[in-house]
Specification:
Largest sheet: 10 strands, mixed
Number of domains: 1
Distance between the termini: 33 Å
CATH topology: Rossmann fold
CATH superfamily: Alpha/Beta hydrolase fold, catalytic domain
CATH class: Alpha Beta
Helix content: 25-40%
Radius of gyration: 19 Å
Number of strands: 12
CATH architecture: 3-Layer(aba) Sandwich
Shape: globular
Structural class: alpha/beta
Order of helices and strands: EHEEEEHEEHEHEHHHHEHHHEHEHH
């Protein structure tokens, strides 16, 4: 059973009647109508994370996760990326819970309060491992099906769940679209300008890079936040609130393995080999999907026209304007929440 760590910091005064029409009314009440464009990157200030932080054993992990909203509401899993954490969704949560959703936001392996159950477990950051983490967490929570949404690592993870376990994914919101990769593709060199944008991946391939990230992980994270979202002005408290999640004892090992695995410099685990073989075929995603992109994303990302044909179900792409960068849920929470509600109604 889940174990609460601290009391709920957000009270839920009444339960909303569910349904697409009523959910639309609920989000209109919190000012969410018409936000697909024109949402500006204003100063981000830290506030409390709505919901309750809990822990539960799931697969090889004891997972830390925030849960908010009615326990019998339709489930939404929100998945963060690197070097971010669950607070990327802090302003998304109250919008979705007001619309009647049960929202679950896990710390990925290597972040926050998530820990490996076994001291000698492989600190594996390969893509299939993170996706399996979501499936076993859903099992542990008794959730058969959910809407999935994410950005960066979280978008890739959500994409994989949607592709390999469509029966578990009711609908998908993916920032930057189709991000499923494979090692063989990762081994192929890119044009110099594209390679330059992945500088940190090559830095992490060296022993100096690992030592540097260990010593300066917060400085590193701040640099990535700034370069990936050049129009986003966040204050120190907002950054520190998320940067604490990088103090996880497994964080450096997971991050280094993730980026080395991508370019074939680290091996995965045998238990995920069959899944990786399927992912190497670039499977289509057939669940209803909305992909999002900010107009000022400074991180490496594919262009929408290169992945639109990978979504074989009902599909829509939205460009979010106003200087929105890589951390789209935190920079444009209304647009992200709007996409979750809309795709659930497809």
């Amino acid at each position: 059973m889940p174990r609460d760590i601290h009391p709920d910091t957000h009270t839920w005064s009444r339960r909303r009647i569910l349904g697409t029409a009523v959910a639309t009314v609920a989000i209109a009440e919190v000012g969410l109508v018409g936000v697909a464009r024109g949402e500006s990157a204003t100063i981000a200030k830290a506030g409390p994370m709505p919901g309750t932080l809990k822990q539960i054993d799931a697969g090889v992990l004891n997972v830390g996760y925030v849960e908010a909203g009615p326990a019998d509401g339709p489930a939404v899993f929100l998945l963060h990326g690197w070097p971010y954490d669950i607070h990327a969704f802090a302003e998304v949560v109250p919008i979705l819970t007001a619309a009647g959703y049960r929202v679950i936001i896990p710390h990925l392996r290597g972040y926050g309060t998530t820990r490996f159950l076994a001291h000698d477990a492989v600190r594996n950051g390969e893509q299939a491992a993170l996706a399996v983490d979501v499936i076993v967490l859903m099992d542990a929570l008794g959730i058969a099906r959910a809407v999935l949404g994410g950005f960066d690592w979280g978008a890739r993870t959500a994409d994989i769940v949607a592709a390999l376990w469509p029966e578990r994914c009711k609908a998908l919101v993916s920032v930057s679209g189709y991000l499923i990769g494979n090692q063989e593709a990762g081994k192929k060199p890119l044009p110099p300008k594209a390679e330059l944008s992945w500088w940190y991946q090559f830095y992490f391939a060296t022993s100096r890079g690992r030592a540097g990230y260990e010593a300066y992980r917060k400085d590193f994270a701040r640099l990535i936040w700034q370069s990936a979202s050049p129009g986003w002005r966040f204050d120190d408290a907002t950054f520190e609130r998320s940067a604490q999640a990088l103090d996880n004892p497994d964080h450096v090992s997971i991050v280094i393995h993730n980026y080395r695995w991508r370019i074939g410099l680290a091996e995965g685990e045998r238990q995920y080999e069959a899944l990786e073989n399927r992912l190497a075929q670039a499977p289509d995603i057939r669940v209803p999907t909305i992909t999002l992109e900010g107009d000022a994303n400074g991180a490496p990302h594919p262009q929408p026209e290169t992945y639109a044909n990978k979504f074989a179900g009902r599909y829509e792409h939205r460009l979010i304007t106003g200087g929105i960068g890589h951390n789209l849920p935190q920079e444009a929470p209304q647009a992200f929440a709007r996409a979750v509600v809309d795709v659930d109604g497809f």
